[in-house]
Design a protein that fits this description.
The strands form four sheets. The chain has an eight-stranded mixed beta sheet with strand order 1-2-4-3-5-16-6-15, sandwiched between helices. The protein has a four-stranded antiparallel beta sheet with strand order 10-12-8-13. The radius of gyration is 23 Å and the shape is elongated. The chain has two domains: about 5-180 and about 300-385, Zn peptidases (Aminopeptidase, 3-Layer(aba) Sandwich); about 185-295, Alpha-Beta Plaits, CATH 3.30.70.360. It contains eleven helices and 16 strands. Helix 1 (about 5-25) packs across helix 11 (about 370-385) and helix 2 (about 30-45) packs parallel to helix 3 (about 105-120). With about 375 residues, the chain is of the alpha/beta class.
């Protein structure tokens, strides 16, 4: 099955929805207007059930097939934006200063709405499709909140599938892999407490800036010297705050950053080494160093059967040559991981073409990808739920 004719016909309409969402971005769980827009569309399509407030501000629409009873599957899109000032200059650019859809969640939501409209019109399947619109993917753990809210049980979801755009992958292509496809994430904050004083008399101080600077370099040895080179591990310091005067050595310095890995034992080892390095440098300099390590999203792990199925569906839409079945894992995090821990499923990437990268102020979702994503969702639902 190539791109659905109906999906191609709907592209401009769906692109209009996408651009409306792009112009009105909302953050984290505060996606009130976005969720209302989604719920209104689902009701207008004639969904059999539209539930709001799932996982605080999530929305689920249920579409029952006309070909008899059967299982239920979940198709998920994320709704939230990022705290970034947009620089695209598009006519539909963000109207909310300091907020923008820099990760394509506007496109994900629009494509799934388009698929929902098609499926509600045709209902050419048995069982039911739950279209899931999730808040707070960008660090808020909205996927986890929806799972904890009993979404899987309430709607009888047996398998769950997700999709994300990928800049650099040509429009019309898909990419996937079984097993770990995106990394587990953790955030850390390290507070170095020293003894402040006059910058001209450093001998009377315990300089937290010097200690923290050594710690930045030492943390890089966790990946390079404490971890098997064939394992994937990222330790990145992304914040360094200390002092506010030219002639004063401050009392403290604060570092913060992220740890990314594809295995729980590697993450545990990284935390262990971080604590050892902090303790060692504290003892060496006579400082007090505190580490706050917060494990965040788990590994996004694609189940083997569902991954092969999703790849076959993508090949039916785009052609086998346009489907990459064994891409390298990405070290970004994704809270669809919580849904994949709750139910078997798979997460796939759809090409966004030669665009700016994700989380970049010049990024924009490519509307040419809409028909490809819609066709994938429809083919997946109709094939998985064939009587």
């Amino acid at each position: 099955m190539p791109i659905l004719n109906r999906a191609a016909e709907m592209q401009e309409e769906v692109a209009g929805w996408r651009r409306h969402l792009h112009a009105n971005p909302e953050l984290n769980f505060d996606v009130v207007e976005t969720a209302a827009f989604v719920a209104d569309k689902l009701k207008s399509f004639g969904c059999d059930e539209v539930a709001t407030g799932i996982g605080r501000t999530g929305v689920v629409g249920v579409i029952r097939g006309r070909l008899g009873e059967g299982a239920a599957i979940g198709l998920r899109a994320d709704m939230d934006a990022l705290p970034i000032a947009e620089t695209t200059g598009r006519p539909y650019a963000s109207r909310n200063p300091g907020k923008m859809h820099a990760c394509g969640h506007d496109g994900h939501t629009a494509m799934l709405l388009g698929a929902a409209k098609y499926l509600a019109e045709t209902r050419n399947f048995a069982g039911s499709v739950a279209v899931i619109f999730q808040p707070a993917e960008e660090g808020g753990g909205g996927g986890n909140e929806m799972v904890k809210d009993g979404m899987m049980e309430r709607f009888g979801i047996a398998r769950v599938f997700g999709m994300h755009n990928m800049p650099g992958l040509p429009v019309g292509q898909f990419a996937i892999r079984p097993g770990p496809i995106m990394a587990a994430t953790a955030e850390f904050t390290i507070t170095v407490g020293g003894r402040g004083g006059h910058a001209a008399m450093p001998q009377a101080t315990i300089d937290p800036i010097v200690i923290a600077s050594q710690l930045v370099g030492a943390l890089q040895t966790i990946a390079s010297r404490s971890t098997d080179p064939v394992e994937a591990l990222v330790v990145s310091v992304t914040k360094f705050h200390a002092g506010d005067a030219y002639n004063v050595i401050p009392e403290k310095a604060v570092l913060a950053g992220t740890v990314r890995t594809l295995k729980k034992d590697v993450a545990a080892k990284a935390e262990e080494r971080m604590r050892a390095l902090c303790a060692g440098l504290a003892a060496s300099f006579g400082a007090a160093i505190e580490l706050d390590f917060d494990a965040n999203y788990p590994v996004t792990f694609n189940h083997e059967r569902e991954t092969a199925f999703a790849a076959d569906v993508a090949a039916a839409v785009a052609g086998e040559a346009q489907v990459h079945r064994a891409i390298q894992p990405l070290m970004g995090g994704e809270d669809f991981s919580y849904m994949l821990e709750a139910r078997p499923g798979a997460f796939i990437f759809v090409g966004n073409g030669d665009s700016a990268g994700l989380h970049h102020p010049a990024y924009d979702f490519n509307d040419e990808a809409i028909a490809h994503g819609m066709s994938y969702w429809v083919k997946l639902a109709e094939t998985e739920l064939a009587p």
